[in-house]
Design a protein that fits this description.
The structure is a homodimer.
Chain A lengths: L3 E8 L4 E7 L4 E6 L12 H12 L7 E5 L14 E2 L4 H6 L2 E2 L6 E4 L3 E4 L6 E4 L2 H11 L4 E5 L4 E7 L2 E8 L1 H11 L13 H13 L3 H4 L2 H7 L8 H21 L4 E4 L2 H13 L5 E4 L1 H17 L2
Parallel strand pairs in A: 1-4, 4-7, 5-8, 10-13, 13-14
Antiparallel strand pairs in A: 1-2, 2-3, 6-7, 8-9, 10-11, 11-12
Helix pairs in contact in A: 3-10, 4-8, 5-8, 8-9
């Protein structure tokens, strides 16, 4: 029989995923709830968390709580300021912030910030740092850690540290152009299409005039070169190609650990192969969060 | 006393601007109406045009009519297919298409299409070709003709011809990101700010990872480096800088004729100066349309 020892959660803008750990760090229960930051309504963070506990985990309110994600932003429960890169697991432990609560013992993991090497551009992440250190726990080798998504992150790992990282607004750009620009107008019943996707990857990689290349989504349709149902795959290719070439030029085809789930990670795998990355491995995003939250907890309690 | 000889119009998706010419090509009356393609409602193109004539130009229905712009697109009155570059004024005359009308003698100017040199990307324009040849009539020198806007056009002029051109979705990208992306969230009471604009130009020119650079609109705000009221100027700078560097790299700092009106052209003038273009002159966009429509009419009737 196992004894519960920690409740942790990845608490973001839309998602809330809770993990209950035993004393050995094994996850013995998982729970998702619709209390992302934008769905809280009139509830405080404490009330929202208590309601989840009451429904699903009664009697466990005495456990320590550890939260990562946007819950630590300025709009969150309490701000856990971004910690600077280079950063290791200890950096996250040092940056933990206690959330104000009368009933619960809650700590929040800080996000990270970095200047992109060579450009002076500032970058921030919240939640991904926990996934990254979760994966580094079992495999601390150097290379890229890539987390595709709304705001894709490319972290440079060296000596078990996050040296620096960049953000690419690839996922959000895709949604916004599809829903709100002229490029979405001719798109129909989108289906995956490898040919159109790879054509987009090639165009996005080898033509750096981004604002010009994307207009070809319209002209390729006007001249019947790409079917309306494949335009979305073509646009997706251009965007992912544009993201990949920027990192490839700066850092070469380093080994990549690709973190995430489902169809999006499939696309990145194809695109990275096309771009000449030879050493690409993929990891489950939820498992990475689970491992990272436990690693932070262990290091904190060992001190 | 002057005799009316031609009615011409620039008829686009949102705008309709009509010009009445005397026999010497002087514009003796102008009229704007709210009958852009998206505002036509149940009216046919012929009905819409007749209603404008009835209200403002009664008795002139016997004149020849010449129309340019989206009225010649697949969604227009009749399609005037895109003519291929290189193109000169004769190309436009050869591509004129008669619109079906029982009461009026209407011809529509074709748009142009081109493959961007070196990239294979297709480009199209409708309306701008008429402005370009209007300006070339008085000044046929080589260089760039640049028409900033929703979809900015950079036409390469050589020997009085449009050799080729590119499109940059700069204006639309600005609107879409401001209204529908996370980058608009922190923007407040936007005001012009030269410092933020030039910082954006520099970042957009010297950092080619477009999807990454734009995320700095958010981080520069998070770290209080740029005031919320200046974020919009900063984003605008990134986009225009990104447009300009692409053309500068391909074709060098050729002389630029900048065509348009108002604040947007002011911004491009500043940005081009920053980018090292020495020979930049500006021209009024409406005057260019007027001159172009007359030039097409003259060449047609001389034959």
């Amino acid at each position: 029989m196992t004894t519960p020892s920690l409740i942790a959660a990845d608490w973001g803008t839309t998602n809330f995923r809770l993990f209950l750990y035993d004393e050995a760090g094994k996850v013995i229960a998982r729970h998702a709830a619709n209390i992302g930051l934008k769905n809280l309504g009139v509830l405080t963070f404490e009330q929202a968390l208590l309601s989840v506990l009451k429904d699903e985990f009664a009697g466990l309110e005495h456990l320590p709580f550890l939260l990562s994600g946007m819950v630590g932003s300025r709009q969150g429960w309490v701000e856990a300021p971004y910690a600077a890169c280079p950063a290791d697991l200890q950096t996250l432990v040092d940056g933990l912030v206690r959330a104000p609560s009368e009933k619960l013992d809650v700590s929040i993991v800080p996000g990270l910030f970095a200047e992109s090497p060579g450009t002076g551009l500032l970058n921030v992440m919240r939640g991904e740092e926990t996934q990254i250190f979760g994966l580094l726990k079992s495999d601390p080798t150097d290379g890229f850690m890539v987390l595709p998504g709304t705001h894709s992150k490319w972290a440079l790992i060296r000596d078990g540290q996050v040296q620096s990282f960049s953000t690419h607004m690839t996922g959000e750009m895709f949604q916004v152009l599809k829903a709100h620009s002229i490029l979405g107008v001719l798109m129909e019943n989108s289906t995956d299409n490898e040919e159109a996707f790879l054509k987009g990857i090639e165009r996005g990689m080898y033509n750096r005039a981004f604002l010009s290349v994307i207009f070809s989504v319209r002209t390729e349709a006007l001249f019947n070169n790409i079917a309306p149902a494949h335009l979305s795959a073509y646009l997706s290719g251009i965007l992912i190609g544009s993201e990949i070439i920027a990192e490839l030029e700066r850092h070469g085809p380093s080994p990549v650990r690709l973190v995430g789930d489902g169809a999006l990670v499939d696309l990145y795998e194809k695109a990275l192969a096309f771009a000449g990355f030879k050493d690409v491995t993929r990891f489950d995003g939820n498992a990475a969060s689970e491992a990272g939250l436990w690693a932070i907890h262990k290091l904190r309690t060992a001190q």
